Amino acid sequence: LGADQGASLEAALKAAGVDADDAAHEDQWIFYDNAQCALTLRGWWLCERSGSWLLRVPVFGAGLELAGYEEVTEPDMVLERAGLVQHAEAFRQGVVKNVERLLEKAGVTPFARLWSERSTYRFRYVDGAILPVGDIGSVAGHVLEVTLSRLRMDSSFAEDQAVADLLFERGVGARSVLRATLADFRSKGTCGSEAHVAAEQELATAMAQRGFCRTLASMAAFPEAVVYLSALRPVHLRQLQRAQVPSM
Questions:
Q1: Do strands 129-132 and 45-49 pair parallel, antiparallel, or not at all (unpaired)?
Q2: Which backbone phi and psi does 228 adopt, to 5 degrees?
Q3: Is 90 exposed, middle or buried (0-12, 13-18, 19+ CB in 10 A)?
Q4: pTM score, two decimals?
Q5: Which residue, of 71, 81, 172, 243, is most buried by count of CB atoms within 10 Å of its CB?
């Protein structure tokens, strides 16, 4: 969603008496790869989130369908799984304790940086109306949960042509692209039930009517990164789509 669309959705939730379940917290995300996009072309996503490292590696089930992701969080194992065995050993021995510096020596550098502030809401969606949940065990209607991630994107790692195109098309309004909102909807009903399917269809129709037509794959490793690529690194994104990287 555009930042204004996200604000409109959040305002509608609050106007209906739906409050966030938790206090908003902002994280910084930095995503890494080399110049050949060797990691992301394999569907591997390496990032630093507010000082902690995370490597997500796709796991495939029967028929080579994406089943989920393995998460590697220990810095030395992140380096080793990424194929940087000597760098991992240097980290273990204390020769170099800065993971970012080790990655840079191997030619692995940031390709995206953004900040995400999240709030989660639970509500009932009945006949096109947003209603507070109340006592979930006794109220009618299907309960939905939405997590809104308000994104601020750093253009420092954008592709030059993408920036030039945005400036040509939007002029001073190009800066609005640096802000977006991710809305992650989850049904709290029984998956596959008639009520569950009907609620999802009704919600999808309502979102389309509000102009929220762009959807991301539910199995995307990092939807935030996909938003960044779409806005500021379209050539990189097209490479991943041509390579049929899962959930692009």
A1: unpaired
A2: -60, -50
A3: middle
A4: 0.84
A5: 81
